[in-house]
């Protein structure tokens, strides 16, 4: 629920960029105490694609120290507006790599930011990946290029880096991808684990894609046709409620294994963390994987820490693949994960207790699988039980608030969610157990209606009764036989559901209990299923949990030493003014059955004496007795004051449901200098299809 919020807020906190008064080519000197660094320039340009559309690019380009010196190119391509929203943050990374002998090319996706053309039909369109191939070819032929190109990025630009790498452009020699995905239906922000997730990101991106083209911000018929009047993507995504060609056409999970070297970064508190493991298991090219304790962020600032300076490893990676420097980067441990050694539930940790495990490969030597079986009496044991009496679970649609907006971020005590779940606890542990990997789960269930959702959570119960979330997953039972051919449940008929719980690490300490919690709701992460009623779970040989157990290792014995984070250069052309949020709030009324989740934030920044403001508020509601009538409503507003001219774009969205349909309304209102220039509303009634 926080993909774009987290990235934008960090980027804005870091710096802000090239608008209005900044010259097309400005020179910034390298740090005087290090005369090996390069001076570099910022240069705005465009590159023309094969269909004539020109894409906006900003180069962070080092100045040659000798005649004819050329440099590799690192490309990042995003729709997140390099000239305003991401300006300050882009500078931190562009300056870092440029000062060390790389051209960083930051490109706006066609139809967004400063690039020409209409907004694409959706994320990661064929046109976008075609453009990436063409950009790589053109960048490799620049007079200042050595002919070798890398792609990199976090989130969106990790996704398209992986997709472009699959096509194997000749000049693309390696990638770095943080928090990406290989499977757009199961492991992206729209259908988490195959279940509908209405994320504030959808509202954010539909608003920001409707802003006028930078740097001139012209409001004319071309702008209306290409941006403002384009139907919001949220309608497209809601019309694609099941897996299929729409999601798979660029998803690399359904293509040949990766053949371009990849440095992959994940976070234990990020919803996309599984991608790094998925790629590493099948890739034919060298892969480095690092998974830390943080959220949707780069390792030097991700929350919580410990943090490290990943850019030092990135330079060695780029030096090897793009400059041909033999530096031993492939001789280092290829797999690194932070082992969380267990902690009480908390939403404000700065540093997670634990240590780094650095290894040549996964699974670790000495790994094993421990199978545990839910039993009658809320017990989780090693002995496989005979078939026992089914246990009934009443459906409470508002269950799930304690776990937050997606499978990530820090969480408080899970007891409130567990109160409306089936819970199974092991005996208190006599010795510590450490796990690393993706726990596997199988449930034998039945239901009184054709459709429910199942949510499973792996938890740690401390001796004082406090419950920490370790990891979780959602199951959409319509996909139990086939993701491509969903099928309804047959009421009162037993069936098996299988899933992998998202990648995790954790030490269960002596005296603690391992808990499996099972519910039929994960609100607001998953849109509630429509029918009040109940489900049953059947303990027995077909209901089990497999834990990926690894040898316990004491802190201080890891094989790698990680450099501390370095301070980043701050952009000389702007600064952040204010940053409030995001603030999340959960409210559940046990008497009425009402559950509400809200998030609000606002931020403002300055670029070359121009002022930019963005604010947003979102709300999700459901009632246990009427789960079909869940709702989402949101507001987002961007106000840009550029050379005394105020551009104000406000959007509102509402999604409501009943047992059969989603009712969607999205409104855009554009004002210039306080006067309404254009207003447009889209509405649709979209049939529910196993969601």
TrEMBL record:
First and last residue of the signal peptide: 1-30
Residues annotated as domain Xaa-Pro dipeptidyl-peptidase C-terminal: 315-553
Domain of life (superkingdom): Bacteria
Pfam families the record matches: Peptidase_S15 (PF02129), PepX_C (PF08530)
TM region(s), chain numbering: none
Keyword tags: Hydrolase, Signal
An MF annotation (GO) of this entry: dipeptidyl-peptidase activity
Protein's name according to its UniProt entry: Hydrolase
Organism: Alcaligenes pakistanensis
């Amino acid at each position: 629920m926080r993909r774009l919020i987290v990235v934008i807020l960090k980027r804005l906190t870091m710096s802000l960029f090239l608008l209005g008064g900044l010259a097309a080519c400005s020179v910034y000197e390298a740090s005087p105490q290090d005369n090996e660094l390069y001076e570099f320039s910022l240069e705005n340009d465009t590159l023309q694609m094969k269909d004539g559309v020109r894409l906006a690019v900003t180069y962070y380009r080092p100045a040659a120290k000798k005649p004819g010196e050329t440099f590799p190119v690192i490309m990042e391509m995003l729709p997140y507006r390099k000239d305003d929203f991401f300006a300050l943050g882009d500078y931190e990374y562009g300056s870092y790599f440029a000062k060390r002998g790389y051209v960083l090319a930051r490109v706006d996706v066609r139809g967004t930011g400063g690039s020409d053309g209409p907004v694409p039909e959706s994320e990661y369109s064929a046109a976008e990946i075609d453009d990436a191939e063409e950009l790589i070819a053109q960048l490799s032929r620049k007079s200042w290029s050595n002919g070798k190109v890398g792609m990199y990025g976090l989130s969106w630009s990790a996704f398209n880096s992986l997709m472009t790498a699959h096509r194997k452009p000749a000049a693309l020699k390696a990638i770095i991808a943080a928090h990406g995905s290989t499977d757009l239906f199961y492991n992206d922000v729209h259908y988490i684990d195959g279940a509908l997730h209405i994320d504030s990101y959808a509202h954010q991106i539909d608003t920001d894609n409707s802003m006028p083209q930078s740097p001139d911000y012209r409001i004319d018929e071309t702008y209306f046709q290409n941006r403002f009047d384009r139907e919001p993507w949220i309608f497209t995504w809601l019309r694609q409620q099941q897996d299929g060609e729409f999601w798979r056409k660029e998803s690399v999970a359904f293509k040949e294994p990766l053949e371009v070297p990849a440095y992959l970064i994940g976070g234990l508190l990020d919803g996309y963390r599984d991608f790094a493991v998925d790629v590493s298991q099948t890739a034919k090219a060298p892969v480095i994987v690092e998974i830390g304790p943080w959220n949707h962020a780069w390792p030097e600032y991700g929350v919580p820490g410990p943090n490290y300076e990943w850019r030092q490893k990135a330079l060695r990676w780029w030096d090897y693949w793009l400059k041909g420097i033999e530096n031993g980067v492939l001789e280092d441990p290829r797999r690194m994960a932070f082992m969380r050694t267990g902690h009480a539930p908390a939403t404000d940790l700065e540093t997670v207790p634990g240590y780094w495990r650095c290894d040549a490969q996964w699974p670790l030597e000495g790994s094993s699988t421990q199978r545990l079986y839910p039993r009658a009496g809320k017990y989780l044991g090693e002995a496989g039980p005979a078939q026992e009496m089914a246990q009934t679970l009443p459906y409470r649609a508002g269950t799930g608030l304690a776990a937050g907006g997606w499978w990530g971020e820090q969480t408080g005590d899970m007891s409130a969610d567990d109160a409306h779940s089936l819970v199974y606890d092991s005996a208190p542990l006599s010795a510590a157990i450490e796990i690393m990997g993706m726990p596997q789960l199988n449930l034998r269930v039945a239901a009184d209606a054709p459709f429910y959702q199942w949510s499973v959570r792996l938890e740690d119960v401390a001796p004082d009764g406090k419950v920490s979330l370790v990891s979780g997953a959602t199951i959409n039972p319509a996909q139990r036989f086939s993701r491509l051919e969903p099928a309804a449940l047959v009421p009162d008929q037993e069936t098996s559901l299988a899933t992998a719980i998202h990648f995790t690490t954790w030490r269960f300490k002596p005296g603690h209990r391992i808990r499996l919690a099972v519910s039929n709701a994960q609100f607001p992460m998953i849109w509630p299923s429509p029918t009040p009623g109940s489900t049953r779970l059947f303990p027995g040989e077909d209901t089990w949990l497999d834990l990926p157990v690894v040898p316990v290792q004491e802190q201080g014995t890891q094989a790698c030493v990680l450099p501390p984070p370095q301070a980043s250069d701050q952009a000389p052309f702007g600064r952040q003014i204010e940053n409030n949020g995001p603030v999340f709030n959960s409210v559940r009324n046990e008497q009425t059955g009402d559950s509400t989740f809200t998030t609000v934030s606002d931020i403002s920044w300055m670029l070359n004496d121009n002022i930019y403001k963005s604010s947003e508020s979102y709300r999700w509601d459901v009632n246990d007795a009427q789960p079909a009538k869940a709702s989402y409503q949101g507001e987002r507003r961007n106000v840009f004051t550029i050379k005394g001219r105020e551009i104000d774009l406000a959007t509102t969205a509402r999604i409501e449901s009943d047992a059969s349909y989603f009712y969607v309304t999205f409104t855009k209102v554009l004002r210039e200098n306080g006067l309404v220039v254009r207003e447009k509303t889209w509405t649709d009634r979209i049939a529910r299809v196993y969601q």
